[in-house]
Amino acid sequence: MKMGLFYVNECHDENYDRAYGEMLEQIQYGEELGFESVWLAEHHFSAYGSMPSPQVAAAAISQITKKMDIGIGVSILNFDNPVRIAEDYAMVDILSNGRLKFGAGRGYQPLEAKGLGISLERTRERFWEYVDIIQGLWGNDTFSYNGEFYQFENLKLTPKPIQKRIPFYHAAISPESFDLIVEKGAQEFMVTPTLMVLDDVLAYTKRAREQLLQKGISPSIHLNLQMHIAEDTDQAIKNVEKEMKIYFNKVLDLIPGAKGAQVPATYERFAEVAKEFEGTLNIGGLNQSGVALLSGGQEAVNRLEKVEDAGVNSVSCWFRMGDMEHRKVMKTMKRFADEVLPYYKAAKRTEKIGQ
After folding, report:
1. Homologous superfamily in CATH for domain 2-249+281-354
2. pLDDT digits 0-9 by tens, 315-324
3. Are 100 and 92 in contact (CB under 8 A)?
């Protein structure tokens, strides 16, 4: 498995200059330490995330790194025009010399949709139309489309991406989304233990992978995981308890069904999770269930083996959560690089020797 970094880039004091500067410094440091990718998430209108346009951040990162893949985890397709999305990320692919990995989702936060004047009804139908358009524009000299929401003829994308095919990761966090990924024959998908505990996520991941293999598709699978590495599990939990509570209390206020709000169709599972977490937020319990990985280095290696066994090819380590202090993020990155990364580098060397 390849190891990378992940950012929603929470910013609770509204000092965005600080937040962006720290993120860029951490990413440069991550490349020096041997992390092989960085993944960026789109969010709007709250301290939960400070990247309304991850393509802007990705373009900046392309100029301060040389080897890291630049992943989007995810672009919320329903919040923009699909042609503009295709154009923007074609530019990112060029600026990064072909290092873009594109991840897509349909969005879930009512505050974001309302602020952008967009309905959360029928987001799945719109999402798959957007997918067809973006992939069609990237993969053809000219492209025509006649859908329910968009229609155009003989459109030529300028510029075209460097990669002949940009990896296109579909976000899967509910049982229904895994079924759709198999139905659509996705070549890449990404998962995270948000609506399910890790064991359930991995079970669905393994089943989806097996079903795709039966269709002749060998998928690339990416996992995003909140993580902190310390001397041992107790210390790791102690180190991040404040930040993780800040994070979860914020996100639980933003998901569909929060505080008894009406839930749009197809978002019912989010509301169930909001209810399950009411008054029961326990960081040790989140670690036990695999929603987060808070441990010493060797324990992290042991737990990540289960992830690899499910067919996951790459992991993004969500070290900076709850607007964690810069120094603490850099420290846990270094510990991960010293105690966990060598296991995967050695595995790659062994695999090469055995070929």
Report:
1. Luciferase-like domain (3.20.20.30)
2. 999 999 999 9
3. yes
